[in-house]
Design brief:
By secondary structure, this protein is of the alpha/beta class. The protein contains nine helices and eight strands. Helix 1 packs parallel to helix 7 and helix 5 crosses helix 6. The two termini are about 15 Å apart. It has an eight-stranded mixed sheet with strand order 2-3-4-1-5-8-7-6, sandwiched between helices. A hairpin with a 2-residue loop joins strand 7 and strand 8. The chain is about 40% helix and about 15% strand.
Length: about 250
């Protein structure tokens, strides 16, 4: 594209946003723009990046925007950026919705369906060679990703494919002794509340990362090499790592 452009990652929530930023900064050497207590960073058109969005610069000087959504607003955010792409072109767009599929349930059909919806909203054109990719006016290439872990059903893993399941599976591989203690705590606690799927991740956070709090925990997972490698292996297995890597170049 001629002139300024941006790369955009749209995710469901603030923990997802921090998780992506942690990968880009710790493992792909992107530079965060802006800092707490400082004026907000600017996008390539000189507009403040705010509203919970993160901004980074890649090694090739590309501008990356990470956009969190809340309360089911992911589709609305995609439409908003698609409408704005005529004046703020996007050379790469990656959308990572929550799949909430059961472990072992087929993922590709859900992602193909999501791509079809996004294409319709963006007046896009599907990529015939890749069921996750499409292009649209002002958007050179777009893709749909997913947070998932191919690990089989186990007592220590959430029962739906979520960011938390991905992170817990990586800890179970890299820190099985930690996982054993976390599982024992959850089994022994009196009067447990209804299951949310976040129990194991938050137990690991409280046990070993309480000084980082919840958001800091999802960034810290990329700062420990064997845990980061376990995460990357799972993201590669479900086809999301390559799309993230392309944005971080």
């Amino acid at each position: 594209m001629n002139g300024p452009s941006q790369r955009v990652v749209i995710v469901e929530g603030f923990l997802d946003r921090t998780f992506v930023a942690g990968l880009f900064e710790s493992r792909r050497h992107c530079v965060p723009l802006g800092a707490s207590g400082k004026p907000p960073p600017k996008d390539p058109w000189g507009i403040d990046v705010k509203g919970g969005q993160f901004a980074l610069k890649t090694k090739s000087e590309a501008f990356v925007r990470i956009v969190p959504c809340e309360n089911g607003q992911l589709d609305a955010k995609v439409k908003l950026f698609a409408r704005g792409a005529n004046t703020k072109p996007i050379d790469q767009l990656l959308v990572i919705p929550d799949s909430d599929l059961a472990p072992g349930e087929e993922i590709e059909g859900r992602l193909t369906s999501k791509r079809a919806n996004l294409c319709g909203w963006c007046s896009g054109t599907p990529d015939p060679s890749d069921p996750r990719r499409f292009s649209a006016p002002g958007i050179a290439t777009a893709a749909v990703g997913v947070w998932a872990a191919p690990d089989p059903v186990a007592p220590h893993l959430p029962t739906k494919q979520t960011l938390e399941r991905l992170v817990v599976a990586a800890f179970a591989e890299a820190r099985p002794d930690w996982m054993k203690h976390a599982q024992q705590f959850l089994v022994d606690r009196p009067a447990p509340p209804p299951v949310t799927g976040r129990e194991h991740a938050m137990t690991i956070m409280a046990g070993w990362f309480s000084h980082r709090f919840s958001e800091g925990f999802f960034r810290a997972v990329w700062e420990i090499d064997d845990i980061a490698r376990a995460l990357e292996a799972r993201l590669q297995a479900v086809g999301t790592l390559d799309a993230l890597n392309q944005l971080a170049v």
